[in-house]
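We treat protein structure as text, and this decision shapes the records that our systems exchange. We quote a single record here, exactly as it is kept in our systems:
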Amino acid sequence: MYTLEQLQVFTDMPFLVFVKDEELKYVWGNKCFLDLVGFGSLDELVGRKDHDLIWSGYADTLNENDRLAMSGGKPVNITESSDIPGKGTVGGRVCKFPAIVDGKRCLMGVALLLDE
C-alpha cells in the first residue's frame, strides 16, 4: 500500500513511473514521465487516459497490457513502444502491477526507456 506522497521519492528518478486508477486514468507520474508526454506539471496529466496522450494510436495495446496486469494480480513485464512526435519510435521495458494507492486499487508502472 502506497500514498501519493510516498511516491514523491520517484519524482526525479531517471526512469518512468506512473499510476493509473481502475478506469485507466492517470493519477500520478514522475518528472521523467511528464517530460516524455510533454507536460510541465502533474495537473496536466491527472485524469487523462492514454487516448488523450501523444501515443493515442497505441492506447488500445497499452490498455490491454494494463488490464492484463490488473486482472492477473501480479507483475507483468513487457516491452512496449510507440511513435512519439519529435522523438521517433520510443520503446521501454515496462513492469506493470496492481497496487493500492491512497486506499484505491490502481495500476503502477515502472519503465526504463530503451530508445529515445
In short: The beta strands are 16-21, 26-29, 76-84, 88-101, 104-113.
